Amino acid sequence: MTDTQKTQHPPGPWYKISAVHETGKISWLVGGAPTDDDDGREMLADTGQVHETARANARLMAAAPDLLNAMQGILPIFESWIQSDDDDPETAEIMRAWVNDARSAIAKATGAED
Fold first, then answer.
1. Each residue of 30-51: pLDDT tens digit?
2. Domain locations along the chain
3. What is the pTM of this model?
4. Is the pLDDT of residue 110 over 80?
5. DSSP per-residue letters across the chain
6. Integer angstrom CA distances of residue 65 from 9, 11, 20, 43, 71
7. Lower CB density within 10 Å: C or N end of the chain?
């Protein structure tokens, strides 16, 4: 990964956190791992919503660093497989599409497409 592709986000893991408002409603936040010098978490995102969709959004946001790391780890394996397997053109075509999708997602997450 080049310097221009390094992400600027706080490292994972991130966590889905619920917040109870004065009204008794619960909204969903995403926070980073507690820091070494205190038990607090850096607040990364507030969905600003109280419904189940907000909870699902918070889950997805909290999983983002892990998903990025996993995608970066498996992408070279798929790229290598595509280059070495000409026996099944249909499967290779599907894999090429997945690799292109993975590259696009990584570029979006790391800011390389900006």
1. 777 666 655 566 666 666 666 7
2. 3-109
3. 0.65
4. yes
5. --GGG---SPPS-EEEEEEE-TTS-EEEEEEEEEPTTSS-EEEEEE----SHHHHHHHHHHHHHHHHHHHHHHHHHHHHHHHHH--S-HHHHHHHHHHHHHHHHHHHHHHTTT-
6. 9, 7, 26, 15, 10
7. C
